[in-house]
Design goal:
Metallo-beta-lactamase, Chain A; globular; 5 helices; 21% helix; 33% strand; alpha/beta
Amino acid sequence: MQIECMILGEYATNCYILSGGQAGRCVLIDPADDAPRLLARLDNAGLVPEAVLLTHGHYDHLLAVPGLQARWPALPVYCHPLDIPEDTVEYEGRRAFPTVAAFANLRTLCEGGRLELAGLAFTVLHTPGHTPGSVTFQCEQALFTGDTLFLESIGRTDFAGGDDRQMAQSLARLAALPLADCPVYPGHDSPTTLAHERRFNPWLRFAQR
C-alpha cells in the first residue's frame, strides 16, 4: 500500500490517498478543501478514486467532495450515520458549508465493518468522542484516526456532539489494540506510531489506567 498525504484547506487537514492495491485506483480519506489541487494530483498520478472515506463529518474534512463528485458522479462517500445530519448546509458565522447529507451516493459505516476498495481492505472502528460518529480506519497495519488521536494529543471534545467520556473510551480502545506497533495517520499534524503514543501521549496514558 502506498500512502500519500496532502495537507489541504485553511485548517491544514490531512487528506490521504491510498493506492497500490489495484492499478490506477485509489481510496481517499478525508478529502479536505481544495478540490482543484487534489484533482490535479490524482490526474498526475494516473489515479481514479474508488471511494471517499470520512473519519467524521466536520466540514474541514470533506469540502473537496462536491468537486470530486462533479468529476466522478458515481463516487461513493462513506460516513458513520451518527455524523450524517438532517440539514444539508451548516454555518460558521456568515459562511455556509455542505454537510455530509448534501452528498450523492452516500453510504454508511458501522462498527466492525469491512470494506474492500481499490484492492485494499479496511476495518471500521467506531471511536466517538470528537464527534458521535467519529471512526478510525485500519488498513493493513496502519490506523487513520481522524480527529480522535494526534501526535501526543487528541481531538477537541468541546464542539457540539463532543464527549469526554466517549473520547476516553475510544483512546483506551486504540491503546489496547493487539498491535505491538503500527503507523498512525491523524487528521491534522504529523504521522506518529501507536507505540509512541502509548508512551508519550498523556491522554492515551491516562485512558489506559
